[in-house]
Amino acid sequence: MARGLSSDLLTEINSGSIKPVALVEIGFPTVQRLTNHYKDLVHDSNTYLAGGHLLKISAKAENSQINVANFSIQLSAVDSAFVSIVLGNVVSNDEVTIDIGFINSSEALIDTFNYDKGYINNYSIDTKQGVLTLNCTSHFGDFSRTAGRKTNEGSQQRFYSTDKGFEFSALTIQDLKWGRQ
User: Fold this and answer.
1) Per-residue model confidence as pLDDT tens digits over 143-175
2) In whole angstroms, what is the distance from residue 133 CA to residue 110 CA?
3) What residues have CB less than 8 Å from 30, skipping those under 6 apart?
4) Structural contact between residues 6 and 110, judged by C-beta atoms closer than 8 angstroms
5) Cα 113 from Cα 179, distance rounded (Å)
6) Cα separation, 65 vs 144, whole angstroms
7) For residues 78 and 42, what is the distance between their CA atoms, to the nearest angstrom?
8) C-alpha distances out from residue 109 to 3, 23, 97, 100, Å
9) Which pairing describes strands 95-103 and 32-35: parallel, antiparallel, or unpaired?
10) Cα 116 from Cα 23, distance rounded (Å)
11) Do residues 102 and 18 make contact, with C-beta atoms less than 8 angstroms apart?
């Protein structure tokens, strides 16, 4: 099986009838869950609403280095619901999760994967176009670190030559708690 893809997903990929959809969860004071599918979808016991409010998600580039990537989500500002949320609340640092889901030929959600996760950095409202843009920074943007330091054995040895704490970290440490707790 290829890199963790479920057998249901592989079957649909081979049939050529797979449809990707976006599932966006925005951690506003009242959590908002949106999809770009034509009808509401249920994933992990949560309903993602299909109201045409989710307009665009910025593309992202991947590389082998850990970096603080930025992404944006455009929402319709024609309905004032989202505009009133961002204007009436402090939404900076609210968590945003974007998952990509796959719909089979029976219109059932068969699998998902995390596309991006981060925090709202700021927002802008284009009143002429009726667009609310949430500018987000990846979850790596929340690290508090010393400039020039990395979380690997080489960097640790540079500052603490006798510390072997990162020697086997990739093999033994299951879950490191970073940033906000």
Assistant:
1) 444 555 566 666 666 667 777 766 665 554 555
2) 29
3) 85
4) yes
5) 22
6) 18
7) 25
8) 19, 11, 18, 10
9) unpaired
10) 11
11) yes
Name residue 150's amino acid. K
Q: What is the pTM of this model?
A: 0.70
For residue 84, give the H/E element and its range: helix 81-88
Give the Cα separation of 163 and 61 in Å (integer).
Answer: 35
The dihedral of CA 52, 53, 59, 65: what is its sign?
negative
Contact 59, 73 (CB under 8 A): no
Q: CA-to-CA distance for 124 and 22, rounded, in angstroms?
A: 22
* Ranges of each domain in the chain: 7-142, 145-181
Q: Looking at beta carbons, which pairs linking 31-34 to residues 24 or more positions away fall under 8 Å?
A: 32/82, 32/85, 34/75
Other CB atoms within a 10 A radius of the CB of residue 3 amount to 4
pLDDT in tens, 63-113: 666 666 788 999 999 888 899 999 998 888 899 999 999 988 888 888 888
Quote the strand ranges of 3-128, DSSP E.
Answer: 19-26, 32-35, 41-43, 46-48, 54-57, 70-76, 95-103, 109-126
